[in-house]
């Protein structure tokens, strides 16, 4: 059975540690390799992207393969060709597909009919490759190498209970750390993800805590994480959301309640002055561009792991 990466929970804890280790090795010795020589990755985008598009393309190139950018607007899907037929056709040419889609269900449908691995580059429900890169950043900074290093380790996610929050919840549930989620009423993560996380938490010893007050939420955090208040597809709600989310801004005052050695993370792109101030994102605790760089290294590991599986 072909393995796909639609959710971070498609991996287990051991595989996540292996991917991080492989990514660290790629990072230490950045060079052209032969891992994916002769293989082509199709990259389908239904929404804009800077980091995901460029880091996947460069990763594929540096692994000896070919990244093929496919704008969803230019494919026959646009004229009504079905996803199953597209999946069956592309499976005859490509070694894998990375897709950024509006609807998670469309990616799932593609995966059901493809005989090559499908890797999600973000849907409205999850952003697995982002959080894998973030876990790599967190492991590097806090020297996490095994389970004991995560005992009582706390990540605090403040803001919209969106795709990135969902992948963090599943990551905490798989890896066994504490995730504090601080979102306004009405913008909490989705129930289906909570249920999926709860089932995994029982096995890992991790914990997800829902905290209403941002100052309390950051008090014991090693990582303070945020993302835009209005994700792609919700742009028309941006003004209305600004009013509701203002108390959840990561600013200097809020950070004064966090431990001094806490780092600030953001998946980018940021809406500066909304979910995060310039002072914080450009300040000494921010590691946002290390996160962006790590997308390249972790995706090399993801590509090798998924594209080298026996057919
Ligand atoms: N973080 C992230 O996925 O960025 P892009 O939207 O630029 O790909
Ligand atoms: N939550 C954001 C993440 C962008 C990388 C969005 O979906 O737009």
Description:
This protein has 311 residues and is an alpha/beta fold. The chain has 2 domains: 8-126 and 292-307, Aspartate/ornithine carbamoyltransferase (Rossmann fold); 132-287, Rossmann fold. 41% of the residues lie in helices and 14% in strands. The protein is built from 12 helices and 9 strands. Strands 7-6-5-8-9 form a 5-stranded parallel β-sheet. β1 (40-45), α2 and β2 form a beta-alpha-beta unit. The model has no long low-confidence stretch (mean pLDDT 97). Phosphoric acid mono(formamide)ester binds next to α2.
Which range does the strand content fall in?
Answer: 5-15%
Q: What ligands can be seen in this structure?
A: phosphoric acid mono(formamide)ester, norvaline
Low-confidence stretches: none
> What is the structural class?
alpha/beta
Rg calc? 19 Å
- The spatial strand order of the largest sheet comes to 7-6-5-8-9
Q: If classified by CATH, what would the architecture of the largest domain be? A: 3-Layer(aba) Sandwich
Tally of discrete structural domains: 2
The CATH first-level class of the largest domain comes to Alpha Beta
What is the approximate shape? globular
Describe the biggest sheet? 5 strands, parallel
